[in-house]
Write a structure and sequence with these properties.
Blueprint (H helix, E strand, L loop, with lengths): L1 H8 L1 H22 L1
Protein name: TetR/AcrR family transcriptional regulator
Organism: Bacillus wiedmannii
Length: about 35
Amino acid sequence: MLYYFVWTKGEALLMRKVACANTYINKIKPVIR
């Protein structure tokens, strides 16, 4: 049910969080390597 709530109520916000997370990971990848 929680996933359904997120998908219907905050899909745009969720996608924005995913995009921010991807950018954050891309910035940290060189540091990890």
